[in-house]
C-alpha cells in the first residue's frame, strides 16, 4: 500500500464546494454514486452515452440529464454531459470543460462498464455459458468500454487530480478471485482483476501527489440490469446503488483515506467501518 504524503484532508474547495466526475452515471452503480454525492452536497459532473437529445443506448431507463436532476434535487449540483468514454477525444473534451468551469476535481469515479450490454439485452444464457461459447465481442466490450475507458479517463483527469489537494479516484470493480466467491466468466474475471491492478498501479504513480486511488468491490447491487433477472437471483442481502454511493461519499470524507491507496476495498467492509447503510 502506498502512503505518499503525510495524509489526505477532507475534500473541499475554498468556497466549500467539492467537485466529482462520475463517469458512467446514466444508470446502475454510477447513478447511485452520483445521487448519493448530491445528497452530501457535491457538485457532480454526470457523464454517459444516454441523453435526451442523443437518445438512449439501452432499453433500460436513464439519461445523464435525469441523473443530474436527481443530484440537484438531493442538495448538490448536477452537470450532465453526454460522453462515450470509448472515444478519447470526447473524454478529453469533458475534462477540459471540468477544468474550465469547475477548476478542480476532488473525486473521479470510474463506473463506465460496457461488459453488461449483451446481458442487459437479455443474453442470460450467453453470460453463463463457458468462455469458448461466448463471443469474443464480450471480451472486447469489457476491455474497451471498461478497463481501457477507466485508464483513459484517469489519465485525462490526472492533471486536475494532482492539482487538487487530497483528491480521490475510485474505480468500480468486483471481487472475482477471493476464496468462497462464485466462479465468474473468464473475460469478466480478467477484466476485473485488471481494474484492481489499474487502481494499484495508479496509486503508486500518484503517491508523490497524495492522490488516493482504490478499486471498489460492490456486492450484488439492485441495478436496473440486475432487477431484470430477479427470478434467478437471491436479492435478500443485496445492496442498493445509492447505498454504494453513500460508501463512496463516506470514503471521500475520511481524512485518513490515503492509508487505503492502492487497495481493493469491499463496499461491505467500508460500510461496517463507516457505519453506512447499503441495503436501502
Instruction: Write down the Rg.
Output: 17 Å
CATH architecture: 3-Layer(aba) Sandwich
Distance between the termini: 32 Å
CATH homologous superfamily (4th level) name: NAD(P)-binding Rossmann-like Domain
* Shape descriptor: globular
For this structure, the CATH topology is Rossmann fold
User: Share of helix among residues?
Assistant: 40-55%
Identify low-pLDDT runs: 1-6
**Percentage beta strand:** 5-15%
Q: If you average the pLDDT, what whole number results?
A: 91
Total helical segments: 10
Order of helices and strands: EHEHEHEHHHEHEHHEH
SSE-based structural type: alpha/beta
Outline the structure in words:
With 280 residues, the chain is of the alpha/beta class. It has one domain: NAD(P)-binding Rossmann-like Domain (Rossmann fold, 3-Layer(aba) Sandwich). Helix content is 42%, strand content 12%. The chain is built from ten helices and seven strands. A seven-stranded parallel sheet has the order 3-2-1-4-5-6-7, sandwiched between helices. α1 crosses α9. The radius of gyration is 17 Å and the shape is globular. The protein starts with 18 loop residues before the first strand and ends in a 6-residue tail after the last helix. The N terminus is likely disordered.
Attribute tags:
single chain; 280 residues; alpha/beta; Rossmann fold; 7-stranded parallel sheet; 10 helices; 7 strands; globular; disordered N terminus
List the helices and strands and how they pair.
Elements: E1 19-23, H1 28-39, E2 43-48, H2 64-73, E3 77-82, H3 88-101, E4 107-110, H4 117-120, H5 124-127, H6 136-163, E5 168-172, H7 186-206, E6 212-217, H8 224-227, H9 241-253, E7 264-266, H10 267-274
Parallel strand pairs: 1-2, 1-4, 2-3, 4-5, 5-6, 6-7
Helix pairs in contact: 1-2, 1-9, 3-6, 6-7, 9-10
